[in-house]
Each structure stands twice: as C-alpha cells, then as structure tokens.
Amino acid sequence: MSDLAVNHHADHPGFSGLTGSLFALMFLFTGKAGARLAADVTAVGPGDLVVDVGCGPGTAARVAASRGAQVTGVDPSPSMLRVARLVTRRTTKISWAEGSAEKLPVSDSSATVVWALATVHHWRDVAAGIAESQRVLVPGGRLLAVERQSPPAASGVASHGWTRRQAEAFAALCRSAGMVDVDIADRRAGRRAVWAVSARLRS
Ligand SMILES: C[S@@+](CC[C@H](N)C(=O)[O-])C[C@H]1O[C@@H](n2cnc3c(N)ncnc32)[C@H](O)[C@@H]1O
C-alpha cells in the first residue's frame, strides 16, 4: 500500500476549468491505444455492463459501446465529463456520472466489467477504490487496471504510471480483498509499455 503511495498523484491539483478541458483534449489522443487494449483484455461485448472509472474524455467508454456494451463513465472532473459529452454522439449506450473511484455512483452488483485506465495513480485511497469496484461488480465480474510503465526514479510526466512494484502492490491489494484470477501482464498500448492488472470477483 505504501508502495502505491510513493509514486502516485493523489495530491494532483485536479483537472478543473480550462486546464482540465485542455488535458481532456490531450487524453482524447493519448487514451486510444489503452482503450482498445482494455476492450481486448476484458473481451468486452454485447451483454456487458462496463463502468469506466476515471473515464476522462470517455475514449474507452466509446470503444466499449462500439463493441455492444452498456457503459457508465465516471470521473470527478466536470471538465473531463463536459468534453466527454461534447465529443460523444447521442447514444443510449453510455451515461456519464460525476464521482470517484472511492465512491462510485453505481448500484451494487450491476457491472460485469470495471476498468480503470491511467487513473489509479491519481486515487487518494486505492484500497477503497478496489472495495467499491467489488461492490458494483456482479459475481464473476472482471476488474482491469492499466497504467503506463514508470521507472522507479521517474519524475514529471513519466511518473504518471506504475513501477513494477506498484503494479504488484495493486495486485496484492486485489488478492487480499478476496479477488481471484489476479494477473499482472506486461503489455503494449500502441508504442507505450503498460502494466495491465486483471482480477475477478469470486463467483
Ligand atoms: C490521465 S487521465 C485518464 C483518463 C482516461 N481514463 C484515459 O485513459 O484517457 C486520469 C483521470 O482520472 C481522473 N481521476 C482523478 N482522481 C480520480 C479518482 N479518485 N477517482 C476516479 N477518477 C479520478 C481524472 O479526473 C482524469 O480524468
């Protein structure tokens, strides 16, 4: 747990106002490969109910919807959600909600997939985020966290991700919370090396 605290950005000032909107526009481009990876790893498809935690401008939510899933995109930043709504064609497949990983605005046992892409390093309370994911997942539901690979001594933009030890710490938290089939994969999202940690709620 302390390992996760070393390199994450829970004290980030937040994505608000004009700066938040500019970051949202940037994430529209940087999030595409991670979104496709998440959809492939979770094999998302029709019948799935996906919660995209820390959805930012909603790239992964749109990928999931294009594969037939019903999606709720959750983010604490109104600026991110504003851009997400602006760039998403009117659809009944996606709804957007303001909230955080630590307090998801989603009912119990209602999601088959919860994914968190490039966002866990911002969470204030990672254990609470995992507990919330468990609360909203159906038995057997899939949790996936993807973070860019960050070297241990990284600073600045490069530190917005996980070291191997941080990916392992997240996996350990999932295991100790009772999740099963916990796996850490060394993957690529476009040109970027990422950690993809997956887990399942016991059936
Ligand atoms: C780097 S962006 C990633 C956005 C998107 N998932 C993507 O891959 O393009 C990180 C996002 O996490 C959100 N975030 C920050 N703290 C959060 C928290 N405690 N719970 C959920 N999301 C959070 C931010 O508002 C931001 O939209």
What would a concise description of this structure say?
By secondary structure, this protein is α/β, with parallel strands linked by helices.
Account of the protein in words:
The chain has a single domain, classed as Vaccinia Virus protein VP39 (Rossmann fold, 3-Layer(aba) Sandwich). Strands 3-2-1-4-5-7-6 form a seven-stranded mixed beta sheet, with helices on both faces. The chain is built from seven helices and seven strands, in the order H-H-H-E-H-E-H-E-E-H-E-H-E-E. Helix 2 packs across helix 5 and helix 3 crosses helix 4. A hairpin with a 2-residue loop joins strand 6 and strand 7. By secondary structure, the protein is α/β, with parallel strands linked by helices. The site of S-adenosylmethionine has 22 residues, from loops.
The gyration radius over C-alpha positions equals 15 Å
The helix fraction, in percent, is 25-40%
Averaging pLDDT over every residue, what do you get?
92
**Widest sheet, order of strands:** 3-2-1-4-5-7-6
Biggest beta sheet attributes: 7 strands, mixed
Structural class: alpha/beta
- Portion of residues in beta strands equals 25-35%
Chemical compounds bound to the protein: S-adenosylmethionine
